[in-house]
């Protein structure tokens, strides 16, 4: 029987956006750094990006492909609150498409030993699992962590939701090396020293394993002379020679009187920690109310962000998935919890946020973290004293616009440097203007360069360029026009030059002028309210109508943490 590949299907799945790889413009007036270095480990080159998160991910792709150790995202949960007037299938399909487009780029950004962590609830968790299987491959699935987000059941529900899901994926599961968690005080209390072992307190583990292995089915003799064999269906957890080494080292325990079934002693002094499992209680990593209190402490009740995640939850994820100085990405920054926690834990971070709370919540929060004025969250647990900084970026406007006659032209907001950087990104070059060679605006290798100009170049100017470049190197020339020679003849005459015209060279590359890939409900086809008939129930909403919903919009993928409790 042939194996059939199963895929999730939805309306519009075949539609893929032709994203414009925008450049990012730093605004130094919005960037922020500590007045002085607090420690030698301070990190200053973190990035806060204001703009559409899908365009921002595309903008990061060239520089950060394969470099991000951990991605944490808390996308909109698609609870249906923004879709009162839409058919469930339409709303669900839109959500899946928006998630797919973002996951595809996130997959490229992740390092081979990196991991993705996505918080989601039951509304879309199981569809999202199948979608991630498709984007990453089923073999890349690591775990589905259950986080106990509440402290008590909801009285209005017969069966209230107590948890959220955290789906975990890794591009290469074989290369994942998750860290163990430090022992808690309660866990450390399990280590005793009933036999006054000179190595100190210890805890014992079973010396049997599941299954039957011939070389692990031997007989053991306890110090009191009691003979033991593995219980039915199990074998000893090691071969006899290794058992004898443990026995000689004093690590086998047969109970106080030497008659109990053998167990292995593990010392507190040598404990590397404990492996995490997939049940995270709110006593360990916090809950929704704790998260809201943290934000209220920072901003006050009136300005509190309504759907944050607790800092302890992010701390747990980063403890497992990263080490100091690793790069962490959150493209749904919300109130900035990921960046705040990563900063306190000595991780580099990138956050993306489109909402105005980027300025009203995230920046003030990060300033308090950097200034050492945020005593809440995990600050005491990690002994946070302040320091470091971040750079603030905006996505550049679209490169191509139409003039008043409808002709595609370079956006007049672009200066020469911005144009050179944008074309370098579009052509796959690293933007790096040379201080010595005026015609070197970027390079793709040691001998392949880029030159961008809005001039009309003559044959004489092209000859001069070819002479300067030399026969050992090559140059891509992007110019408004060239005269005195055709493109095909130019290649024959100057084999080290490649000529392309601006903007014709890029017109078919991207969806120009598309600044918002979030889900703006006001721009979707609406259901027209049917005439009510007393004898028949109202029909289910349909996506076929063309009416408009009165009032505001719901920007579902404009970023933001979302727990929809």
From TrEMBL:
What does the record give under GO molecular function? DNA binding; N-methyltransferase activity; site-specific DNA-methyltransferase (adenine-specific) activity
Q: Which GO terms describe its biological process?
A: methylation
Q: Give the reactions, separated by semicolons, that this protein catalyses.
A: a 2'-deoxyadenosine in DNA + S-adenosyl-L-methionine = an N(6)-methyl-2'-deoxyadenosine in DNA + S-adenosyl-L-homocysteine + H(+)
Signal peptide positions (record): none
Transport: present as a keyword of the record?
A: no
Q: Which PROSITE patterns match?
A: N6_MTASE
Q: Which residues form the DNA methylase N-4/N-6 domain?
A: 68-360
Q: Where is this region: Disordered?
A: 530-565
InterPro entries attached here? DNA_methylase_N4/N6, DNA_methylase_N6_adenine_CS, N4/N6-MTase_EcoPI_Mod-like, SAM-dependent_MTases_sf
EC number from the UniProt entry: 2.1.1.72
Keywords from the UniProt entry: Methyltransferase, S-adenosyl-L-methionine, Transferase
Family note: Belongs to the N(4)/N(6)-methyltransferase family.
Query: Which named protein is this?
Result: site-specific DNA-methyltransferase (adenine-specific)
What organism is this sequence from? Answer: Acidithiobacillus marinus
